[in-house]
User: What shape does this take?
Amino acid sequence: MAFTSAPLEQAALTFLPRARARWEAAGTVQLLFVLGLADGLLGGALCAALPLAAPQLLTRDAAVWPLMAQIAPQAGAAMLLIGLDISANGVLLARRDYGYIARSYAITLASLAAFLAWSRGSLAGVWWSIVFFFGARTAQSLLRLATRRSEPLPPPIALAASE
Assistant: This one.
C-alpha cells in the first residue's frame, strides 16, 4: 500500500517544472495534495480495516491475528501520512530544494532513532515510529512549502542546461 502514492511524486517532478504560469503550478500542487489525501485516506482505511475484519487474507497463522489487530490503527495512520508526505516531497523535489530535504531527513532519522530507543523496539513502538517518521516528514515538508510558496519554480533541468 505504501507504494500507491509514488506516482504523485513522479507527477510533481514531471508537471511542476513545466508549468508556464503561477496558477498552473498552484493548481498542480493543490491537485497533488488532494490526491495524496485521498490516497492516504483510502490506503489508511484499508490498512486499518483489513487486519481487523479479515486478517486471514493476510496470513493463515491465527496466532498473529491479535498482533495485527493491535497495530492496525498505527498502520492506518501511517498510510494517511504517507500520501501527504509523498505529495509534499514531490513538490520540494520539483522546486529543487535538495538541501532542505537532506537536512529534514537527517533530523527526522535522528529523532526516529531516539524514539525507537525510547520505545525499546516493541511491536507497537516500531509501528508508532513509522507514524512518527511520516508525521514528522509531513509536518516539516508542509511547513517548508507554506513558508516558501511564493518562490517561483526553477526552469526544467533540460532548459537550464541548454541556456
